[in-house]
Amino acid sequence: MFDLIYVIEDDPITLVITELIVKQNKAFGEVQKYVNGQEAYDTLLALQRQEEVPDLILLDLNMPVMDGWEFLDAFSALQLPKEVCVCVLTSSIHPEDIEKSRGYKAVKGYFTKPLDGDALEKMLGLANESKA
């Protein structure tokens, strides 16, 4: 069971659809939504010494304020009490983005939108691997 999931996505329709799909899977608990990387980063920064950090982050790349790459750069410097699995969930199919995402230790998977049940099951497997 994954108690807390962050969905970081600027498109309101995609955000709602992603939340609904995640909530349909009984392996996932609470979903917290953020419309850009800065909001999520600020929350993590405040929580970095607590156990309330998410188990899984679904991260869009192209967002205003703080995009997914900037979030990953800032996220990598956080001192979190446990490992957090990040899965990129983006509309980008650009090979350079896929390759760049592999350079981040926290990023366990790269998926294209829209999220579906099969992709979510793969994310669940990746998150379970990072917990072990």
Number of strands: 5
Structural class: alpha/beta
Tell me the overall shape.
globular
Summarize model confidence as the mean pLDDT. Answer: 91
**C-alpha-based Rg, rounded:** 13 Å
Strand order of the largest sheet: 2-1-3-4-5
Poorly predicted segments: none
Classify the beta-strand content into a percent band.
15-25%
Instruction: Give the biggest beta sheet.
Output: 5 strands, parallel
Helix count? 5
N-to-C series of helices and strands:
EHEHEHEHEH
What's the arrangement of secondary structure elements?
Layout: E1 2-8, H1 12-24, E2 28-34, H2 37-47, E3 56-59, H3 68-76, E4 85-90, H4 95-101, E5 107-112, H5 117-131
Parallel strand pairs: 1-2, 1-3, 3-4, 4-5
Helix pairs in contact: 2-3
Structural write-up:
With 132 residues, the chain is α/β, with parallel strands linked by helices. It has 5 helices and 5 strands, in the order βαβαβαβαβα. It has a 5-stranded parallel sheet with strand order 2-1-3-4-5. 30% of the residues are buried.
Describe the structure concisely for a colleague.
This protein has 132 residues and is an alpha/beta fold. The chain is built from five helices and five strands; from the N terminus they run E-H-E-H-E-H-E-H-E-H.
